[in-house]
Amino acid sequence: MDVLLKVLTVGGAAYAALLAIVFVLQGHLIYFPDAGREILHTPQDAGLAYEAVWLTTEDAVRIEAWYVPAPAARGVVLLAHGNAGNISHRLDYAIMFHHLGYSLLLFEYRGYGRSEGKPSEEGTYADARAAWRYLVAQRGVPPERIVLVGESLGGAVVARLAAAERPGALVLASSFVSVPELAAELYPWLPARWLARYRYDALEALGRVSSPVLIAHSRQDDIVPFRHGERLFAAAREPKVFLELAGGHNDGFLFTREAWREALGCFLAQHLPAGAMNSVPR
């Protein structure tokens, strides 16, 4: 009995220590800025003209962004990428949206790439707001001509932005319901919902979005289960479209496949104003 009590005591202490470590260091399980700090390519390498701009957030952090114009653009896509890599890893999106007739603003989260600061939940929201302000205030893009696109973690970022603003459309690709929900599924041996200091509650934000919504998810997603996409779609208001993808979570740039690119193009053509934008000021 004494041996069993000792084993239980030591085991309990070890588990408590593990919980403390996870609680303190969970940011390292969410953000992976060091997975790609180096800028490997620019849109110019893909034959696209672009403008590198530096945005200052409301809390005085400077973040990098790339504006990739399309001729006679119907609108502008504001893309929030996932939790790893940087904007130089998302050039396929620039090519795709260029072919669809949309300009693109790729913005970098704080602490990623060459941007200043350290990533945080409120920080990523502020970064997205700075990108929105740049398009609306500095480039004069009408909100109804802006398409918010979020990839994985970026889905929660732009869902919150769309709930506060009124973009022309919102697209969530391979996104999760919330961090606590996803963590509880990935780490069932931990009280993840209780430990979570990060929310990224896309489900709650989506319920407040009045813009047309497209949810895209794959049944083969090996990180964010397909049911997350289904729950997000159920929470979205009409008009809404569900686009079923194929392949794993990190197969990369799933939208660039022809069938899905056509479906996305049809969705945007249906819900954004017809015709090209007027020239806008710099």
UniProtKB/TrEMBL annotation:
A Pfam family hit: Abhydrolase_1
Swiss-Prot/TrEMBL keywords: Hydrolase, Membrane, Transmembrane, Transmembrane helix
Protein name in the entry: Alpha/beta hydrolase
Any one GO molecular function term: hydrolase activity
Stored SUPFAM superfamilies: alpha/beta-Hydrolases
Transmembrane domains' residue ranges: 12-32
Domain AB hydrolase-1: start-end pairs: 76-205
